[in-house]
Design brief:
Four Helix Bundle (Hemerythrin (Met), subunit A)
Length: about 140
Amino acid sequence: MDTALIEKKLAFIQTCVRELKELADPERLAIDVRERRFVEHTLQLAIQAALDAASHWVSARRLGEPETNRALFTMLAEDHVIDRELGETLAAMAGLRNILVHGYQTVNTDKLRDILDHHLGDFERFSAALHASMQYAQRP
């Protein structure tokens, strides 16, 4: 397992979360296109980094082929890396990433605000859980 690669992805997630906490202005999401795009893009980057880290874990542990990005987080929950609730939350984030990347629809500013207000910690929980699992997996 390339732990350095996973650690790099986890560090990037932490950077994105820190930037969202320090720089995002949720009050301006509905009226400032730059604010909205900053939040959307930074969330997209954080979600993609989580997907990349999850994908690497699933591959290295030979857990199978996920049919969707969402399934990566289900597989992590089944491997006891994260709990099921966090897996479901992150699976929904993967869906948000698809909307942001492919422009299927416009993301409601209330949804973005909810993530900023209540779900940035989910990224931190994911990072901590994956980091702890890597430490455990490396034990002799």
